[in-house]
Design brief:
It contains ten helices and twelve strands. By secondary structure, it is an alpha+beta fold. Strands 2-1-5-4-3 form a five-stranded antiparallel sheet. A five-stranded mixed sheet has the order 7-9-10-12-11. Strands 6-8 form a two-stranded antiparallel ribbon. Helix 1 packs antiparallel against helix 3, helix 6 packs parallel to helix 10 and helix 7 runs parallel beside helix 8. It is rod-shaped, with a radius of gyration of 51 Å.
């Protein structure tokens, strides 16, 4: 069982929240580390400055074993108020200023001839926490004095802790604000998509002329809207073709059915002789054959449109195949007093379904002979043009007017006598075009009114993969 789907707005809002949180965490960690580093450098610099100051004060002190009271008080006030502990001791370990116990972990003191640097500050950690320790030698009356400065990190850590708490609070508030603003921005950005969906909901079979407003949509939605409009155009064309196809089919089926009914009613109106019944049955048989051809052709086109026909690509000798078709129609042409010949044919092989190839060429040849006047001529030919092998059927005669050339391959089209071959019911050229589409080729027609008409079948010349 699937859960409730999450909206795109919520998904993008959560994504914005995750991105904002990741960015805030990264920036906060960087700022925290930068602050900690700067504070550490400041502490070390402060220790170095205090060490130099103590050296100068001790160097200016009067001779004697004990530091004067004024110097003792001055150093105690100057050093001890900001978390820094000062210890001044002699070379034999006697403490002159500061805690009496030796400071654990103190590094080797910096000699008198060199100023202390950052590398001389040592980091130590004990039960009291993290510390920074610096030891230097200072001039004294009875010999060098050891000056040790210790800074505890408790104050700095407290500042960093407060900063971390403030940073986490800002992270939570910033993430919440970014999430809310992101969700609102996504909802606002998806409004054109909601309008697109609303327009799509109002489209039905009676309102296929509706189109999506491409220019009013954002750039990201324009390809979707354009594709949807292209789909609507194909659907509208398909519905119109289907409506016209159904009307034409009903009209063409009604003619033979009415003829059968009238002939049968007339025959049953009174007693008939055996010869009359035989003539009636023969006439009915012709109408049945016409109906059978119409149903067969319609079924062929329906199967071709749904790609349910298996096309077998065999290697075919074009010249032998066209010669066979010429011999088949030779007597038909003679009866019509039409010259029928075969032009030059290249030796290139053709890869096509033999049955479908014969059906396509036969349809064109029978149509050409039927519409060629007495004394005219029909010819078969072929030529190789790059990646295509073209079979042509040429006939002389009245030709096809230019306004009808773009429609001759449509089903049941009867805008011209060239489409009025009675037995084909206007499906012959539609079948030719469907066969060519199954082969990945094309069917075309060229006509010069009053001179000639040429039907072209273009097949791919390369072997099938």
């Amino acid at each position: 069982m699937t859960g409730r789907p999450i909206s795109i707005a919520l998904r993008l809002g959560l994504l914005f929240a995750a991105i904002a949180a990741a960015v805030f965490v990264a920036v906060g960690a960087y700022l925290y580390q930068t602050l900690a580093h700067q504070m550490g450098r400041r502490d070390d610099t402060d220790l170095l400055n205090k060490a130099v100051l103590v050296r100068q004060l001790l160097g200016a002190a009067p001779e004697g074993g004990r530091l004067p009271y004024q110097l003792d008080t001055t150093l105690g006030r100057m050093i001890g108020q900001d978390g820094v502990t000062l210890q001044v001791s002699t070379s034999d370990g006697r403490t002159l200023l500061g805690p009496a116990a030796a400071i654990a972990g103190a590094p080797a003191p910096v000699p008198l001839g060199r100023d202390p640097g950052s590398a001389d500050v040592a980091a130590r950690t004990d039960a009291g926490g993290s510390k920074r320790i610096l030891s230097v030698l200072a001039p004294g009356a009875d010999g060098p004095l050891r000056v040790t400065l210790v800074r505890t990190r408790s104050d700095r850590l407290a500042i960093l802790r407060r900063y971390a708490v403030d940073l986490l609070g800002a992270l939570a508030v910033g993430t919440a604000v970014a999430t809310a603003l992101g969700f609102a921005a996504v909802r606002h950005g998806l409004r054109p998509m909601l309008g697109l969906a609303a327009t799509a909901r109002h489209i039905n079979a009676r309102r296929l002329t509706t189109r999506m407003p491409v220019d009013e949509l954002p750039l990201e939605l324009r390809p979707l809207s354009t594709g949807f409009n292209v789909m609507l155009e194909r659907l509208e064309e398909g519905v119109q073709r289907l409506s016209g196809f159904a009307a034409d089919l009903a009209h063409d089926l009604r003619t033979p059915v009415n003829a059968l009914m009238m002939q049968t009613q007339v025959a049953l109106s009174r007693a008939r002789t055996l010869d009359e019944y035989q003539l009636l049955l023969a006439s009915n048989l012709e109408e049945y054959e016409r109906l059978s051809r119409m149903i067969e052709n319609t079924l062929f086109l329906a199967r071709a449109d749904n790609a349910q026909l298996a096309v077998r690509r065999d290697r075919i000798d074009v010249r032998a195949e066209l010669e066979h078709i010429r011999e088949y129609f030779e007597m038909v042409a003679e009866d019509k007093q039409v010259a029928f010949g075969l032009d030059d044919v290249p030796s290139s092989p053709l890869y096509a379904d033999p049955v479908l190839l014969q059906r396509a060429v036969n349809n064109l040849v029978s149509n050409a002979i039927a519409h060629t006047p007495h004394g005219g001529a029909v010819s078969l030919g072929a030529n190789r043009d790059g990646e295509w092998l073209t079979i042509r059927v040429t006939n002389s005669g009245a030709g096809i007017p230019p306004e009808h050339l773009g429609h001759v391959f449509e089903r049941y089209y009867r805008g011209d006598e060239a489409r009025a071959a009675g037995s084909s019911a206007g499906l012959g050229l539609s079948i030719v075009r469907a066969i060519m589409h199954l082969h990945g080729g094309a069917a075309d027609v060229e006509s010069i009114p009053g001179q000639r008409t040429v039907f072209l079948l273009r097949f791919p010349a390369r072997p099938p993969t």
